[in-house]
Amino acid sequence: MARKNGCPTNIRDWQIEILDRMGAEDRWVRVAGLDTMIRTAESETAEGSAGVDLWSEPYVTKRSVQLKLSGKPVGCAATGEIDPGQALLNSYARAEGCEEDASMRFVDPYGQAMEADFVVTGTEREENAGGSGISWELRQVGEAEMLPYIPVQSVALDPAQAALHAGEAVEARLVFTPEQPSNRRFRIRLEGRQHIAVSGITAEGFMVRGLSAGEAAIIVTSLNGKKTARMAVTVEK
Length: 237
Description:
237 residues; mainly beta
């Protein structure tokens, strides 16, 4: 995760999560829609010079580490609901005092992972030629903790085969080996997309709906390790 200080990083294939402390048990929630991160480290001391930005640099007195996450708003226009991860960032941006501290986890596709605490100092919506945009300003609190990276060894789809009538739907779940790899991000490719549609994509899986009679398949590829799984689908009238 080394990066020249203040330069943008493409994070479309990263897994970025924020800790949700509102429920009975703490749980990590993925933040969707992010595409760019800018991390800037400043210091008033020569020892704290930040020509190159390293997550694992030791904490230096008087250092100020700022983070800007940018992307697109994600949610349902019909219901007004927004992505749970984005909603948590917004709630921390409105919080005050000790309630501002947010724990976040960053995992890139290449084998590095870290956790750190941040104060979300603000959020901003903007409209441009590409549509709506959103960004969050964060200030790092203390040191980042580098985490052991657990690579994906294999991925499977459950079920591996499905038979549907047009209009019917079935849930497909991803099964990773090991069960909890560091980066669970994946891409989906459809064969015979005129026969099936995929919706409700989460970190755990997605829904498959039959559209018209025919043979189709879903191919899932993990971003880490490029492991693939295939689900064959037969749609009947």
